[in-house]
């Protein structure tokens, strides 16, 4: 079965990672999941702004 996602690597500042981990803990999720959710939301907003969707 093919993967539905691809692993990727990005560099985050120590401060950004700390803040993401804190927010994720408050929301009861992992920081990676939270980062994916933020990315998805932001891409959608840009697509709307550009009239792609």
List keywords for this structure.
64% helix, extended, mainly alpha
Task: Please characterize this protein's 3D structure.
The chain has 53 residues and is mainly alpha-helical. Helices cover 64% and strands 0% of the residues. The protein has 2 helices and no strands. The chain has helices spanning 14-27, 31-50. Helix 1 (14-27) crosses helix 2 (31-50).
Q: What's the total count of β strands? A: 0
Roughly what percent helix? Answer: 55-70%
Low-confidence stretches: none
Strand proportion: under 5%
Radius of gyration: 14 Å
Helix and strand succession? HH
Number of helices: 2
Q: Which oligomerization state do the chains in this entry correspond to?
A: single chain
Content-based structural category: mainly alpha
In whole angstroms, the N-to-C terminal distance is 29 Å
Largest sheet: none
SSE layout and pairings?
Elements: H1 14-27, H2 31-50
Give a nutshell description of this structure.
With 53 residues, this protein is mainly alpha-helical. It is built from 2 helices and no strands. The N and C termini lie far apart (29 Å).
């Amino acid at each position: 079965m093919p993967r539905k996602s691809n692993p990727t690597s990005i560099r985050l500042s120590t401060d950004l990672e700390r803040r993401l981990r804190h927010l994720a803990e408050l929301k009861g999720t992992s920081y990676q999941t939270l980062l994916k959710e933020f990315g998805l939301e932001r891409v959608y907003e840009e697509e709307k702004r550009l009239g792609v969707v």
